[in-house]
């Protein structure tokens, strides 16, 4: 299945200076009803986690939420968002984390958002 493409009506780069790579262990811990948790590698691929912030209008927010629901439900990677470390490069195979999109109204038809992406190298 082909990767989805970041919607053209949305900014393709984070707010300047807000995208950053986050340290992570690369392991997933599953809590059990009885006994110790099971710890395993999240993937055998080399992945990293980035945090992103965007500033959107109400219409753009609706577009992003629809895109989020579509790609997250299908666990579908997407291409076309700028790499926060080097905005001249685009991310390939990014997926939203299960944490969701956090939004906060900042005035009339203006929203600040933050979310996390898993990116394969």
Explain what you see:
This protein is mainly beta and 121 residues long. The protein has one domain. It contains 1 helix and 11 strands. It has one helix at residues 58-73, and strands at 4-5, 20-22, 27-30, 38-41, 47-56, 78-79, 82-83, 86-90, 95-96, 102-105, 111-120. Strands 2, 5, 9, 10 and 11 form a 5-stranded antiparallel beta sheet that branches. A two-stranded parallel ribbon has the order 1-6. It has a two-stranded antiparallel ribbon with strand order 3-4. The chain is globular and about 50 Å long. The mean pLDDT is 77.
Brief rundown of the structure:
By secondary structure, this protein is mainly β. The chain has one helix at residues 58-73; strands at 4-5, 20-22, 27-30, 38-41, 47-56, 78-79, 82-83, 86-90, 95-96, 102-105, 111-120.
SSE run: EEEEEHEEEEEE
Count the domains: 1
Number of strands: 11
Alpha plus pi helix count: 1
> What share of residues is helical?
10-25%
Strand content: 35-45%
CA-to-CA gap between the ends?
19 Å
Average pLDDT score: 77
Write down the overall geometry.
globular
Rg:
16 Å
Low-confidence stretches: none
Counting helices, strands and paired strands, the structural category is: mainly beta
For the structure shown, list the relevant keywords.
121 residues; 13% helix; globular; single chain; 5-stranded antiparallel beta sheet; mainly beta
């Amino acid at each position: 299945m082909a990767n989805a493409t970041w919607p053209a009506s949305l900014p393709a780069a984070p707010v300047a200076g807000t995208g950053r790579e986050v340290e992570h262990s690369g392991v997933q811990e599953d809590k059990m009803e009885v006994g110790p948790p099971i710890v395993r590698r999240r993937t055998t691929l080399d992945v990293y986690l980035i945090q992103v912030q965007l500033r959107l209008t109400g219409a753009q927010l609706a577009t992003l939420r629809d895109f989020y629901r579509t790609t997250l439900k299908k666990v579908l990677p997407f291409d076309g968002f700028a790499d926060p470390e080097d905005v001249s490069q685009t991310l390939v195979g990014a997926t939203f984390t299960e944490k969701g999109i956090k939004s906060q109204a900042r005035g009339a038809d203006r929203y600040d958002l933050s979310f996390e992406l898993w990116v394969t190298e």
